[in-house]
Amino acid sequence: MKPWLTSFVVVLFSLNAFATGQYPDRFIHEGTEYSLDIYPLEEYFHQHPEKRLPDTISNSGLARGYIATYEIIEGQLFLTDIQVQKYRPNLIGAAEFTWVSALKTVFPGAARVKVDWFTGLLDLSFGARLFEEKGDPDPYFYYQYYLVLEIDKGDYRKEKCFTFPEFRVFVEQQREAFKKTPGYANLKKEVDATVLGYVQGRHGPISRNILRYLPRILED
Question: Of the candidates 151, 184, 153, which has an alpha carbon nearest to the alpha carbon of residue 36?
Fold first, then answer.
């Protein structure tokens, strides 16, 4: 299996483990904050299991136990914070939750960390939320706009912004372009065998989630 394919299988398998809808990570780009529902830090923890945060408070909506913050800074993708929940007693002695940073627990002494273990596309939705089309099996809500960023080993390469109708056309173009590549059949076979529950589950088959499997934007 190619390294970038391994990376995507790891991230997608992690998402499959989170069967309930999850709180997103945070993504900051050009001063705007977006929600990010693919979790690059899970890939790092897969590569370095000894680094995974111990004893984090998790729940059905935050099974991974943390919320990470990413930002594009000077053409590079950085992890700038990892927030976890901790218990602390309040004024009457009862336990309550508080959020604390765990970035330096995972990366001692670091104020930010380049996400050089990640290669792929990040798709960010924003604007007004649209209703699902009647009869469409896709479980996601749709949004007015989509921003797709191409990342190569933590380096920002380029981005494309779309309205929702344009985004659908783009996804279809990427799907058809990918089918023409030598690796498509092998990828589909490996992903179907490895993360069958995810591929055929609420996130849909590979053909409906194609951007999560691409290492770059495929040009015509």
Answer: 151
Domain boundaries, the chain: 22-111, 120-213
pLDDT value for 17: 43
Which tokens in the block code for residue 100?
């604390």
pLDDT at 10: 43
Long-range contacts of 47-52 (CB under 8 A, 24+ apart): 47/117, 51/106
Q: How far apart are CA 151 and CA 180, in angstroms?
A: 22
For residue 41, give the 3-state DSSP assignment: helix
Q: Note if the pTM is more than 0.85.
A: no
Among residues 184, 115, 145, which one has the least CA distance to residue 32? 145
**E strand residue ranges, 30-184:** 32-36, 67-73, 76-89, 95-101, 113-114, 120-130, 142-152, 155-163
Q: Average pLDDT for residues 130-138, to the nearest whole number?
A: 58
- The one-letter amino acid at 171: V
Angle (deg, nearest 10), helices 40-47 and 3-17: 110
Q: Please report, as a single letter, which amino acid is at residue 95.
A: A
CA 39 vs CA 22, 56, 77, 150, 192: distances in Å: 11, 17, 13, 15, 20
77 versus 11: the higher-pLDDT residue is 77
pLDDT at 204: 43
